[in-house]
Specification:
The protein has three helices and four strands, in the order βαβββαα. It is α/β, with parallel strands linked by helices. The chain has a single domain (6-98), classed as Rossmann fold (3-Layer(aba) Sandwich), CATH 3.40.50. The protein has a four-stranded parallel beta sheet, with helices on both faces. The chain is globular.
Length: 103
């Protein structure tokens, strides 16, 4: 991916920290997050954009990445964001890029 590929994490808890590392390793830069509340612990200094209900997909970059650990909450968020025509990155989207990572 190129340096214009940026993303927004959907959910900013423990699962998102791993997702952030995977995205960064694939040259996807994360600048924002969506969550139910502003997180006091913000290890990557991401900008809070609110929750999924009040999003403007043009605000948070080219892609979003579902990084909620809870399967039900993740599916609910994805369905809501899909209704706003949000573009998603998934691990399957990134899979071809893993071949470029040196071991």
């Amino acid at each position: 991916m190129n340096d214009e590929c940026n993303a927004c994490l959907v959910g900013y808890g423990g699962h998102s920290y791993v997702a952030y590392d995977i995205l960064l390793a694939n040259q996807v830069f994360v600048n924002y997050y969506l969550d139910q509340e502003i997180k006091s612990f913000n290890p990557f200094s991401l900008e809070y954009l609110g929750d999924e209900l009040g999003i403007d997909k043009n605000t948070f970059g080219k892609y979003s990445f579902p990084s909620l650990g809870d399967n039900y909450a993740r599916a609910k968020s994805i369905n809501l964001l899909k209704s706003h025509n949000v573009n998603f990155l998934t691990l399957f989207t990134l899979l071809p890029l893993f071949q470029n990572i040196q071991r």
